[in-house]
Amino acid sequence: MARQLVSYIAPGAPATRRPAVGDEPFLRPEIGFTVRWYHEALGIDFGARWHTDPAYRRDALTAMGRELKRRFPGLNIGWVADPDHPLDLLTGAFGGCVVAAIYGVPIVYSRDNWPDTAHQCLSDEEVDRLEPPDLDTNPFFLGVMDQVEWIARECERVEGYLNWQGVLNNAFRIRGEEIFADLAQEPRRARHLFACIAATMTEGMRRLYARQRRSGVAVRHCTVSNCLVNMVSPRIYAGLLFPFDQRLAETFGLIGIHNCAWKADAYLGDYARAKNVAYIDMGLDSNLARAKRLFPDARRALMYTPMDVAAKPLETIRADLERIAAEYAACDVVFADIESGTSDERIRAVATMCDEISREVCRARGLSAFG
Length: 371
What we know:
Elements: E1 5-8, E2 16-19, E3 27-33, H1 35-42, H2 48-52, H3 54-71, H4 98-102, E4 107-110, E5 113-117, H5 124-128, H6 139-155, H7 167-175, H8 178-185, H9 187-214, E6 221-225, H10 234-252, E7 254-258, H11 265-273, E8 277-282, H12 288-294, E9 299-303, H13 306-311, H14 314-327, E10 331-338, H15 344-365
Parallel strand pairs: 3-10, 6-7, 7-8, 8-9, 9-10
Antiparallel strand pairs: 1-2, 4-5
C-alpha cells in the first residue's frame, strides 16, 4: 500500500491527490490547465452536460488528451496514457461543489469555467436544525452514483476521485461569509455545521469507495482542501477545524492536505499532529525547510502560482526551483491553473528545468533522481 500521495491534475479538473507510484522524480512537475484553456483550444462546452453526462465527458476527455499529447509530447500532463481510451471519467465532475450540492445549494455551470455554487446560504435557524442528508434518498448523490454505474458498465473499472473539498471550504459554500462570524461569535453553531459536513464527506466517500472497490479500484485515502484556513486564526483552526481533519485522517488511513499557494507556517504545527499525513502542499513563502522537518514521510508539494509561471523571468523561476530542491525536495511542484496566455514553450521550459535540477541535485548528493 502506497504511503504517500502525489498531486494529480486530470484534464478539466481541479487538482486533487492520488497514490504515489514510488518512482516519482526528486523534483516532480505536475502541470494543469484551466477549463478556459481547453475551451479556447478545442471549443469544448464545460456546462452542465460535461458534469452530468459521462458519455459526453468521455468524448471531451479524448479530445483533451489528444491535444495534450500533440502539444506536449514526452511530458506526462494529465496522466493520459491513451487519449483514445481515457480511464478516469470521474475526476473533475462537479468541480468542488459536490458537498454543497448534496446540501441543496444549486450549482451554477459555465461553458468556460469550473462550476460554482449559487449564493443561497443557510440562515442561523437552518444551520441550527441542520442534519446530514440521507444519501439513500438524496437526488444529487443518487445522480452521481448513477454516473458511477454507467462508468462501471462502460469501463469496468471506476477510476478517479470526486473533489470533496474540506469542512471550511464546504461550510463557506453552504453558509457564506457568516461562517466567519459564527467562528468568532457562535462557535457551537460552526461546530455543528462542520460536524454535519464531515459526516456527509465521510459517508459519501465510503459509499463511492465501496462501489469502486467492487470494480477493482481500491481507494484508501482522503484529501482535504483548506483553501480558506488562512482566513481563521491558528487557535480557531486548532480548536474547531483540526479535529475534523484528524478524524478524516483516522477514518481513511491516509490524508492529503491542500493549502493553495499561500504561506502555511501558522498551521504546520497542528497539521503535524495529524496522523497519516501522506501529502501536504503550500506556497513559496512558507518555511520550506521547517515543513520538510515536520513532514519527513509525506510527499510534499509546492504550489507554484500560474501568475509566476507566466510572468517571472525564466532565470528567476529556475532560482525558485533550485531553492525548492535544496530546502524541500523530494517533492512535487504543482503548476496548476495555467491559462492560454502562457506559451507552450514556457511550459516545456519549466518542465525541463525540473528535470535538470533533479538530476543535478541528486548527482551532487549521490542520490537517485527519483524521490
